[in-house]
Amino acid sequence: xxxADGTITSxxxxxxxxxxxxxxxxxVIETDEMAPEWFPIDAPPLPKMWADDxxxxxxxxxxxxxxxxxxxxxxxxxxxxxxxxLPPRRLEVDEQRSRRLCVDHLVYGVPGDLESAIDAFExxxxxxxxxxxxxxxxxxxxxxxALGGPxxxxxxxxxxxxxxxxxxxxQQPERLWMAMDSVMARGEPRLVTWAADRSxxxxxxxxxxxxxxxxxxxxxxDPGEVQHFARATADGATLKWKLAYRHYEESTxxxxxxxxxxxxxxxxxxxxxxxxxxxxxxxxxxxxxxAEAADPKAAAEALGAVGIDAADLLGDASAGGGTxxxxxxxxxxxxxxxxxxx
Length: 342
Prior knowledge:
One of its GO terms (molecular function) is dioxygenase activity. By secondary structure, the chain is α+β, with helices and mostly antiparallel strands. The chain folds into 2 domains: 65 residues, no CATH class; 206 residues, 2,3-Dihydroxybiphenyl 1,2-Dioxygenase, domain 1 (Roll). The chain is 23% helix and 29% strand. The longest helix has 12 residues. It starts with 10 loop residues before the first strand and ends with a strand.
């Protein structure tokens, strides 16, 4: 986040790495180009890829984690490549930390119209977000993409979903939420904040949202009042959930948005497989969520009040990047570098 004098006070980054694990001979590609050339998945230039193994194979053999990304012009020409060497077990540790965070969804605000944001996301990742619903009285509408599911090795709602949030032109609300005022004022999209479902934390499965709020207040942090939401699904059923938040203007975001708002889905909606993490389009998997805070002490105290170990979110962000997202696309597309962040 940029302060009034232009300095960066907090930062969250989202990184994406090419990954198509369902194909034994899948291509690995990286691009920051506006119009990338994608190599056919059924004919990847494997000889050229393996010719560069001296850049990464020694690291693998020595026990390091390696993330490699390549962009090919043709079977004999590599336009760009990047090999990131991480400490041993870094990817595994990041995944374990992300599971403990109980991420329900990431909120990404865009200043333009929702349809353009959907098109841009699909062009970048090969996955097209589905239009979700309207937040009546709050001035927004959204589009959604799941962040992991049973067909990519994770467990359904394990990592929630990615929410693209845009203004709803049909509404004239008295007050916007999720810092959309600052998103519109700056004219730049950004990762605003995230939501946590603490009822998914080990040992807290029977803990209600209200109980989590009371526990946080006892520790000096107020997550906000409970608000009830509902919307009709395409098949005529009703999806219900409730939130505890005070994420309105940018100035009200708890610790610059690093502290999540709390969510609890109606048990019947979850059991029926109606929640977005189960119904939204797949192809993206959340690997890790990492952040840096301008005031680590304040962030740690607020996170701890809502049951989150600050080390799981605010660890050594410089060592592994920020938030990481892995794309898995049946089209053979992949992306590299920063996907979304602030």
